[in-house]
């Protein structure tokens, strides 16, 4: 086990210090031992091979990948200075992984992008501002898996703000992209007749693709059968067997694990006793936000209140100084 764990750390360029500061990696050796304890001894090597090549994004890797993507975007797009940047957000405002990785993206481009070009909620931004001088919209995400989340996010915006979006180029910047999601983006581009491009750091290749981890075809087929047996017992939802819609992903981020990853690595609500290495945050555990706190109007109101309070305090201090 230790040899495979060392390989995992080396491949992901993770230091011993990373195991201490990254909450998801703390106690990793113990977590792996507990995880293997639920797997039959003759099957453990198969799962350790998958762990060895598991793609883990700590905060530094997220930062570095976004930096490369931003540089790629600004080199590719001549009118990059005329861009709105926004995260792909869930339907209801919550504090989740979106906030984590988008804050890192903002760190990457903070010196070059005006704060007025950052749209925390793109819908509110489009409602409030005149975007006639904007040429591009960059949507930032951690992963484009099957592409369903992107489609469900983008279609309503295009329907509601067609006059503000249809003439813009849309870029998706993501850390990881699955071939299924890339195909869906291509279909959206053709169906909508819009310029939509995806720039990504890593491709999420299926774990059991031919010639990837198992040189012999018979070994690959057998390994997939073994893993599928465990997946079928463990995944709470049938859709998550072998990763969502059989994505067969091997990826986790410091803030969460996507359901595109094999469920044997993240499922917390397993049908049997199971101890995942990279638990996925269960939907509903995120911190909900008050809708009134995320609209641009509310943000402006809070800003005005702060300014008025500052003026009030300043005037009171000045009065005391004048009156002795």
From TrEMBL:
- In this chain the PRTase-CE domain maps to 32-280
Transmembrane stretches, start-end = none
**From what superkingdom does this record's organism come?**
Bacteria
Pfam families registered for this protein in UniProt? PRTase-CE (PF24390)
Give the InterPro entries listed for this entry: PRTase-CE (IPR056920), PRTase-like (IPR029057), PRTase_dom (IPR000836)
Protein's UniProt name = PRTase-CE domain-containing protein
Output the lineage of the source organism: Bacteria, Bacillati, Bacillota, Bacilli, Bacillales
